[in-house]
Amino acid sequence: MSDEVQFNRRQLLQASALTAAAAGGAAVGSAAGAGPVAASPAAVAVPNISDISDIGPGATAPVRPFPLTDVRLGNGLFQEKRDRMKAFLRQYDERRFLVMFNNQAGRPNPAGVAVPGGWEDGGLLSGHWTGHYLSALAQAYADQGEAAYKTKLDWMVNELAACQAAITARMSSGPGGGDDEPEPEIGRVAGKSGNALRLNGGSKAQYVTLPQETINQLTDFTMATWINLGSAQSWSRLFDFGQNTTVNMFLTPRAGVTGNTPRFAITTGGSGREQQINGNAALPVGQWVHLAVTLAGAVGTLYVNGEVAGTNTAMTLNPSNLGNPGNRWLGRSQYGDAFLDATLDEFHIFDRALSAAEIVALSSGTGSGTIAAYKFDEEGGTTLEDSSPNGRDAGVVAATSSGAATWVPVYPGYLGALPEDTVLRLGPPRFAVYGGNLDTNTWAPWYTQHKIMRGLLDAYYHTGNTQARDVVVKMADWAYLALTVGDPRAGAPLTRDNLNYMWDLYIGGEFGGANEVFPEIYALTGDAKHLSTAKAFDNRESLFGASVDNRDILVVTPQNRPGRRRPERLHANTHVPQFIGYMRVFEHTGDASYFAAAKNFFGMVVPHRMFAHGGTGGNYPGSNNNTELFQNRDNIANAIAQGGAETCTTYNLIKLARNLFLHEHDPAYMDYYERGLVNMITGSRADTTSVNDPQVTYFQPLTPGANRSYGNTGTCCGGTGMENHTKYQETIYFKSADGSALWVNLFLPSTLTWAGKGFTITQETSFPRSDSTKLTVGGDGPLDIKLRVPGWVRRGYQVSINGVPQNIAATPGSYVTLSRTWTSGDTIDIRMPFSIRIERAIDRPDTQSIFWGPVLLQILGNPGSGSYRSLSLYRFLKRDGDYSAAAITPGSPNAAGDPFFTTGGFTLRPYYISDTQATSSYFRRVEPTVVFGSVDSGVPNRKRNDGLPNYDVPVNGIVSPGTDGPTFLDLLWDQAPFATHEAFVAAVRQTAAPLYTDTERDTIVAAANQARSELDPPHTFAVEVSARAQCIAANAYVSVTARNADGVPLTIELITPYGSRTVTGVAPGKSAYQSFNSRRAAIPAGTATVKVTGTVNGVTTTAQFEAPFDASTC
Prior knowledge:
Blueprint: H1 9-23, E1 63-65, E2 71-73, H2 77-91, H3 95-105, H4 128-144, H5 147-169, E3 189-190, E4 195-199, E5 205-209, E6 221-229, E7 239-242, E8 248-252, E9 263-267, E10 275-278, E11 288-296, E12 299-304, E13 307-312, E14 327-330, E15 342-350, H6 356-363, E16 372-374, E17 383-384, E18 394-398, H7 421-424, H8 445-463, H9 466-482, H10 496-503, H11 514-525, H12 529-536, H13 544-548, H14 572-589, H15 592-605, H16 647-664, H17 667-681, H18 716-724, E19 733-736, E20 741-744, E21 750-754, E22 759-764, E23 772-778, E24 781-789, E25 798-801, E26 804-805, E27 814-822, E28 827-831, E29 836-840, E30 847-852, E31 855-860, E32 870-871, E33 889-890, E34 901-903, E35 906-910, E36 919-920, E37 923-925, E38 929-932, E39 935-940, H19 968-973, H20 981-992, H21 998-1010, H22 1012-1015, E40 1023-1032, E41 1035-1044, E42 1050-1056, E43 1059-1066, E44 1071-1077, E45 1082-1083, E46 1086-1096, E47 1099-1109, E48 1112-1113
Parallel strand pairs: 20-24, 32-37
Antiparallel strand pairs: 1-19, 2-21, 3-4, 4-15, 5-14, 5-18, 6-11, 6-15, 7-8, 7-14, 8-9, 9-10, 11-12, 12-13, 15-16, 17-18, 19-20, 21-22, 22-23, 23-28, 24-27, 25-26, 25-28, 29-30, 30-31, 30-37, 31-35, 31-36, 33-34, 34-35, 38-39, 40-41, 41-44, 42-43, 42-46, 45-48, 46-47
Helix pairs in contact: 3-5, 4-5, 4-8, 4-18, 8-9, 9-12, 11-12, 11-14, 14-15, 14-16, 15-16, 16-17, 20-21
């Protein structure tokens, strides 16, 4: 971009200085917690707050979203998740976010206020969580207008404005961008082998910080090092990885207990719930000792000098349970323990447990860590080189005296929790790389800038805070200079080639969706330079052009890497948000190449890299050890061997799907949005009332028997998690740009106020706990209402207006349009009966997942050793192919109304239930022979392997195309339902032809005919069911009636979220009735379930009916 922009460097710098001089008189302000501080206003023309719908996503699209303030969320699952997050936002001390900003601005902080922690702790990503919190506060306020959230937000914006003014004011003290600060003198000492690192005890080296990938991918592991203690300290840490004192994993050389033995411990519940491995003797001081700890499944072992010093055979926790630990330290404790006084040498991390013999060999210098290996053989400096092939350099943190920042900014308008140089050093001449060294490395500095700017824009959009708008416009002015003029040390402006080189840097070049905010700021100001800034983020060297051309290069071989710094596997959450930004550039420039890039990129991920819950990423043996990376195209089953998916990536993927839909209206985008929202997003928030941290996931593992962990203060997923649960209403309704149509995309309880058209729409539903919804129209006049027909619909889609069924052609994966002149009080009832359906992995169809409508069902329990549950289901099917009739049967819902199912002795429940139980999202289908009912043909259920994908990049140890293709029974039952037995037999004969000999085919056909009576669908009972909510005294009741309109006696079970009742021997023409007391003054809309069991012609059959009821407030 910038090599095409004509400007004079001297003129820009002069303009920068003039701006700084103008801002120099702005009040610097007082300590955080003091009264409001005036910030100088930005001299820009901005629209009124009422015009914001013309600025955000979809602003120029034919279909557009409503502002969050126009939609209120009703009671139900989504409201429950939202309220838990709002409780955290309300209690969190917002002053903690300003500590590091004040440090950079030279402003004092109130005593006793700690930084948030995690990645928001002074490390190289500090500041990003502040932006997430601003967005979450703004969204929380927009939903219900509660002043507490706006009060917090307004205070934060005011303080950030004062920090920005104070930093810019320092420009008057002299030119910025002088020589680098001298790197602390951190030397090396003689080690066990070569050099070593001395921590404390006279050394300026205080502790070491490791990159996140050294720990967040591990399950089984080995960590080993040589250590020479300088003193007999208790509880100081050799290593400590975690989020805080509640969630951590550490090894202390001397536990402060009797014997002072070394101790390894891991916990997700504080010190009282530690799982420990204790040594058998105290370590000597002043001698080299080799320490190692290994974990293999449930067995943890502590080694001292190659000998077993302690074991624990009942370990249930491993590093994956720590979430994504923001603190990854050698020599520092999560508690207030003393820094380690010791010398370290040869610190290795492996992604498996070494044997005792391998530990001995490692101590003698044989072997090197597969995750990271630090030999400390540098001559000096704060960078610790990783000698493994992974390049995960660590950084030494020097002991310093704290004080006000004195650095001088290069350009006016900078705002951050770190010095401006941490951003500028990413570009020329230094091209800083990712790592843990605060003085020389970088870690996604433009990602942090994006999050702060996004938070400020959201504050303006959702709460009308104009000061937030002024601050973000100044930040955008600074960004333009930073990405055009650049670092003065370079002596020349940034070129397109420089920018390409920057953005290809793994993690360090990650910029989030920074390119999404600048088009919006262009729309706010009319200043075209902000569009130039947005285009500066184009990833032109290695991805943009390929995406425009629809060439999938998300994973490449070493020989085919398209960029100089381009990794072979792209980091998923680094790149998804870039395409959100490209959509924003398209919307404000009309350049169709940006739309093409975004559309094609999305198609490379969904469905080709999508797991059942909507996430992407994963891991597999022998290929990589980072679950945050994209996998080979169509690699699904083989990518879940060790990992899962990063929640952040789904946060961004559904944003991209939403924005694409606004322009192209493809219902498949909404099907994906719903999948991600109903499963992975709702499933990311723990069902607890804890407010100690956000209680959200980082990874959502898919390994059989895995469990989710929650927390994530200060991490990226902790930040997007705060946002996820405060904006559930943003996509429920859209409007056509000309106001002629309303799009109903999602079935969430809510109320839309469309003031411009004089309409309100109230939606009452307990979806996804039930399969119906009711829309009530407020207002009069003509309007097209477009109702989404989800792609997962299998049993029809019924629509009634004012109780009258409508004759509509509802195709799954489409929208139906109701065109009429509406009258206030009109109602639209929609029923889309859920059904059990099976989804197969693209690359290995025997690896399958179970859905109930849109809801992924997980199998409870841990099968052990990473093995899959095995299920055989076809023998239960009737000609209708309905799994829920016998193969996977409904059980009783829990108190909240969540459905449960059973199959093969296992219990299944919705993915969105969020606790720490072991669950499996996938199972292995085992159908060895062709079986119909109880008739086993004895013929093998042969596989058809043609059509399986051939991985674009080979996977070590995996044959591609594979040999686990769809079986004969898969292909046969895919054609269900069958209207008659003759139609079924014809399908059997035709499907068998290419797979079997004539003799085998005839045997299979004979078995199908023999099983005729077993294959006939069950008798359909005639039962009339109804349910209604009513008030009796101060409580809401749900009354359920079921009338037996059949000719045989029935056992009828009435089931509601508030209780159940079974009535036996209900004669034809008679009814079962019960009124259930909710013991609440208000209940949401919901669904009652009626199960009926009867015997016809000697066959006992159970059928299920559902009856919706409205919300009620007494």
